[in-house]
Design brief:
Shape: globular
Strand content: 15-25%
Structural class: alpha/beta
CATH architecture of the largest domain: Alpha-Beta Complex
Distance between the termini: 53 Å
CATH class of the largest domain: Alpha Beta
Number of strands: 23
Radius of gyration: 28 Å
CATH topology of the largest domain: Spore Coat Polysaccharide Biosynthesis Protein SpsA, Chain A
């Protein structure tokens, strides 16, 4: 039998490249291998999407971004623990030749400890990027081979290589304080000191999308390269480290001066911090983008929280190592949606409505002592109150909306606020979240109620106590649900409700009757969202749960009356909003006009909503 090989692929918020890498790996000819995908704390749901498309592989989910070193180590340790003879780790922006693995294993069976393939540039498929690498005298430079030739012993191989089980058992794994950069070189050097040989194998071919990460994050990449260069010298040139320190620090001083003179202050700062952190022994993750502690003030409901998720994703993508805290100040349960999502490190639940002025000031002072670098107050907050609160929170940089623009969607307005710190906000990410931890509970619910393989139509007939004026009406929901069941024999109705809506949901269920109507009540918010993912369609008025549905991949039909769909409809590519024409638009529950039910909602017919549902079920949606 051929030796068992585990292939480790690390994904962090990169669906497209990881998918392309896996598509090439699934075509390989080597039979005795497994593929392990390690999610490194992704926040875009990319690994869950990949798992749906490539379900037969092994998946490991890290709760946070452990860096290139920690992320790959998780996969390599799993492989060794489960009896693999070899581990092949590969960057997720690489494509492999179907026959690439056999020559590497053959070289390993002949005595090599680490074997690297020929790496070509992508998409220039005939241009060699590297065929093994040697360090020049005392690590003062790199000689990168760019011709095929014969198999040769080299100092190190990078980007992807096959490593024998015995190597990892003897020297361990990647040195995690590197976090990113120089870890492969260090690993190869440790292996050579332990008596193993490192080879390049010309018969094995892969392709690399060279420089993608560097182009995305030049400041971070520059910092990690130079800090870890010094750390590499310290660990691997112990007798000559002080002369080498002198050389490299003089070199970095020259680079710092060059960047400063040219006006490239961000790269100059990265070089300076690389030296400072090395001498202060600060290794591992480091965020150089200027905001390491971020506070979000969230004064709205569940829907407002959901509509801020795209901005949260933008912040996390631009400041991946920052500590992001959220103060949920009105609907405290809104924070539950983000638990375990990776978007927020800590959620403070402190209600402004339930505490007096003295308690509020004490809480704000507690936050102020944390010395946040950045505070963000979302759209819709009174500008004067937002300015006062920003001042009290005391963050170094304070973002708030200067003037409300009702012509823009709330998601767009929130993103506009972030433009004040010069971050890229387009294209706007969807608010999708990953609810994988709820999978078992959801499966149990579906199994218990015999809902597997049924067309589940989810409904939320409520809108919360304070927003009753947004309700379409329970009788209309009853009529719509009956009509769906009459026309689709395999359809099932699942009625969702929030706190205080139990009686409403039960009344609607009783009026429909039959064994095809079920209730989803009293569940944690993330489980509610996980259950929504099983729905073919979710129908709701302008409500918090309607927005929760937009964190999933389900189709949404949203019914709007006095509130503006243009401003606050669920945000997504599968949303169909029906807007009634209202004489009193955007009026809240305290306005005199709300002493009566809004006529605009009553004018939205059951037939018009049913047709939307029918088009989706019949897959005729344009």
């Amino acid at each position: 039998m051929k030796p068992k090989v585990s292939i480790v692929v690390l994904n962090w918020n990169n669906y497209a490249d990881t998918k392309e890498c896996l598509e090439s790996l699934e075509k390989i000819t080597y039979s005795n291998c497994e593929i392990i995908i390690v999610d490194n704390g992704s926040i875009d749901g990319s690994t869950s999407k990949i798992q749906q498309e490539f379900p037969k592989h092994t998946y490991i989910y890290n709760k946070t971004n452990l860096g290139f070193t920690g992320g790959n180590n998780a996969g390599m340790k799993y492989a060794v623990k489960n009896g693999s003879d070899y581990v092949f780790w590969i960057n997720n922006d690489m494509i492999v030749d179907p026959d690439f693995l056999e020559p590497l294993v053959q070289a390993g069976e002949k005595g090599a400890g680490i074997i690297g393939p020929v790496t070509y540039c992508y998409p220039e498929k005939d241009k060699i990027y590297t065929a093994g690498e040697d360090l020049r005298f005392l690590g003062l430079g790199i000689k990168r081979y760019r011709e095929l030739g014969k198999a040769r012993e080299v100092d190190f191989v990078g980007g992807a290589f096959l490593v024998k089980r015995e190597v990892m058992e003897k020297i361990g794994y990647f040195y995690e304080p590197y976090f990113l950069n120089h870890e492969e070189t260090d690993f190869c050097f440790r292996a050579k000191r332990a008596g193993f040989r490192v080879f390049y194998e010309p018969k094995s071919k892969i392709w690399h999308k060279v420089g993608k990460t560097l182009k995305k994050t030049p400041v971070q990449s520059t910092y990690y390269y130079y800090r870890n260069k010094l750390l590499f010298l310290k660990r691997n040139y112990r007798l000559m480290k002080y002369p080498l320190y002198l050389y490299w620090n003089l070199y970095l001083l020259a680079r710092f001066l060059e960047k400063s003179i040219r006006g490239d202050k961000s790269l100059a700062f990265a070089i300076e911090q690389a030296q400072i952190d090395f001498w202060k022994c600060r290794f591992g993750k480091r965020d150089l983008n200027g905001y390491s502690r971020i506070l979000i003030f969230q004064p709205g409901g569940i829907g407002d929280m959901v509509m801020f998720i795209p901005s949260l994703k933008i912040l996390r993508a631009n400041f991946p190592e920052a500590k992001i805290n959220i103060w949920v100040a009105i609907t405290l349960s809104a924070g539950d949606l983000l638990e375990g999502s990776g978007l927020a490190d800590k959620i403070f639940r402190f209600s402004l409505a339930e505490h007096g002025y003295w308690e509020k000031l004490k809480f704000i002072y507690k936050l102020r002592k944390k010395k946040y670098d950045l505070s963000v107050i979302p759209t819709g907050v009174n500008p004067r109150k937002a300015w006062i609160l920003s001042l009290l929170l005391g963050a170094r940089t304070r973002l708030r909306e200067k003037a409300l623009d009702k012509t823009k969607h709330t998601v767009e307005s929130n993103a506009e606020i972030l433009k004040q710190i010069k971050v890229k906000v387009s294209p706007l990410p969807w608010p999708h979240l990953d609810f994988a931890e709820e999978k078992n509970a959801v499966e149990e619910f579906l199994q218990k109620n015999n809902l597997k393989d049924k067309k589940i139509i989810g409904f939320h007939p409520g809108a919360g106590k304070a927003h009753w004026y947004l309700l379409w009406g329970k009788d209309k929901f009853v009529e719509l649900e009956k009509k769906i069941l009459e026309n689709y024999s395999d359809a099932r109705i699942l009625i969702f409700g929030g706190p205080g809506e139990e009686a409403l949901c039960q009344e609607i269920k009783d009026k429909i009757r039959g064994e095809k109507v079920f209730l989803a009540l009293g569940m944690p918010l993330r489980r509610v969202a996980g259950l929504m993912e099983s729905c073919k369609i979710f129908v709701a008025s302008d409500s918090g749960l309607g927005h929760v549905a937009s964190t999933t991949q389900t189709n949404i039909v949203s019914i709007f009356g006095p509130s503006s769909a243009k401003r606050s409809a669920p945000f997504g590519s599968k949303v169909w909003a029906v807007q009634g024409e209202c004489r009193h638009p955007d009026e809240g529950p305290h306005d005199p006009a709300n002493d009566r039910i809004h006529a605009c909602l009553q004018k939205i017919s059951v037939e018009s909503i049913f047709n939307k549902v029918k088009n989706i079920l019949d897959e005729q949606v344009d």
